[in-house]
Design brief:
The chain is an all-beta fold. It is about 0% helix and about 50% strand. The protein contains no helices and 11 strands. Strands 2, 4, 5, 6, 9, 10 and 11 form a 7-stranded mixed β-sheet that branches. A 4-stranded antiparallel β-sheet has the order 1-3-8-7, with no helix packed on it. The protein is globular and about 40 Å long. The N and C termini lie far apart (about 40 Å).
Length: about 120
């Protein structure tokens, strides 16, 4: 049974940093990623990383967020720096066998962790 458990969310001031973690149990996946959903908005792609470390980012987070993974621990991370109020959302970890920036293309999801950025 595959389970994804996120941690690291919380409240941060604009300009601050947070680091999210997502531990995956059950099996390993080629692609691990992060999505987010702000109140009243659709879930959107944030970043993903392949087994070999190739990364993709949503334009609005490029240069501020960094995704990484530890294959031995089956864990993916999202380091968020220079955070903005518009980064406020529930952040979800997701995994899949082949790359997709569409939420419907992901195979398994975590329950999400709330990130709030105050101005």
């Amino acid at each position: 049974q595959v389970q994804l458990v996120e941690s690291g969310g919380g409240l941060v001031q604009a300009g601050g940093s947070l680091r999210l973690s997502c531990a995956v149990s059950g099996r390993a996946f080629s692609v691990m990623g992060w999505f987010r959903q702000a109140p009243g908005k659709e879930r959107e792609f944030v970043a993903d990383i392949s087994w070999t470390g190739t990364t993709t980012y949503y334009d609005s987070v490029k240069g501020r967020f960094t995704i990484s993974r530890d294959n031995a621990k089956n864990t993916v991370y999202l380091q968020m720096n220079s955070m903005k109020p518009e980064d406020t959302a529930v952040y979800y970890c997701a995994v899949t066998r082949s790359r997709s920036q569409d939420p419907t293309g992901m195979d398994y999801w975590g329950k999400g962790t709330l990130v709030t950025v105050s101005s």
